[in-house]
Write a structure and sequence with these properties.
With 287 residues, the protein is of the alpha+beta class. The protein is built from six helices and 15 strands. The longest helix has 19 residues, at 225-243. It is flat, with a radius of gyration of 26 Å.
């Protein structure tokens, strides 16, 4: 569904730290396809429903409250009211777009399961990353093409020229630098054309290196470093999250520990546990 629908927004509850809209601010939210745009004053936030699903609850018969969850971490949420639109109307709009909350959260659960199995790329949306770049392994040293991020991986395609596909499961490392070459292990072959390197001036080029087990694919583009990094940011962030282990979570909440200690003490006082058994269980509980 590509229909664009705009709704009034009130009572923004805060949460978008990067753009810092004012808590309580009013504005609009626009749905177009599977994208949403929240405009609050001069600030605008745009994302995709599958990444930030809308949970809709009624306030009264003519208004509703939206909680925007981060699909990858449902504990992170932003709220705002939609006056003049019932929950049924907004839910129907989302359903027509294939973006009902329950469906999207089930899909998010599936993505988390895949990520647990090592599929770090599942939350990366398809997009056009680099326009007018050059694959340095091409026979034609002057060809340019586009590097796309797809559901299957990276795809470089030049008009009447080279075509390169790098599946996600093969990607081991990604690097953005001003160096035309990068260090690789002895088992890897650097996919860089000698003539291409001789014809290029490294001081005006930036390079995206995508490495699989055996090859480093290098794509050169005339662009500032910050713009190339921004273009690759969704993929780099996903890869970095996979490389960094999640912080250890406490085994038991403080309140639960106190409850369990009280139960153990009761069992000891009633004679079910000896003092030694109580001490051993207490030590296990406190870790």
């Amino acid at each position: 569904m590509s229909t664009k629908t705009r709704y009034r927004v009130a009572n923004y509850g805060g949460g978008f730290a990067d753009t810092k809209p004012i808590v309580g601010e009013a504005g609009t939210v626009t749905l177009e396809g599977i994208k949403w745009t929240l405009k609050l004053g001069r600030r605008k936030i745009t994302d995709r429903l599958e990444m930030w699903p809308f949970e809709v609850e009624p306030i009264d018969s003519d208004s509703c409250r939206v909680t925007v969850h981060r699909a990858s971490d449902p504990g992170v949420a932003i709220t705002f009211d939609v006056p003049g639109t019932s929950a049924e109307v907004l839910r129907a709009d989302l359903q027509e777009r294939g973006c009902g909350y329950d469906v999207l959260m089930d899909e998010a659960d599936d993505r988390r399961a895949l990520k647990d199995q090592g599929a770090w790329w599942v939350d990366v949306p398809p997009y056009l990353a680099l326009i007018g770049c050059h694959w340095t392994g091409a026979k034609n040293t002057k060809e340019t093409g586009d590097l796309r991020v797809t559901a299957e991986g990276f795809e470089y395609k030049a008009t009447l020229g080279s075509r390169v596909r790098i599946p996600w499961a093969a990607v081991e490392d990604i690097d953005v630098s001003n160096q035309a070459t990068r260090r690789v292990t002895a088992t890897r072959v650097l996919a860089v054309g000698v003539l291409a390197l001789a014809a290029q001036k490294s001081e005006v080029l930036r390079y995206v290196h995508i490495a699989d087990k055996n090859t480093v694919f290098t794509f050169a583009i005339k662009a500032p470093q910050d713009k190339v990094l921004a273009a690759m940011r969704p993929v780099l962030d996903a890869l970095n999250r996979q490389a960094q282990p999640e912080p250890a979570q406490p085994r038991t909440a403080v309140g639960s520990v106190a409850d369990e200690l009280a139960k153990l003490a009761s069992l000891r006082d009633s004679g079910v546990l000896s003092d030694e058994e109580f001490a051993a269980q207490k030590a296990k509980l406190l870790g």
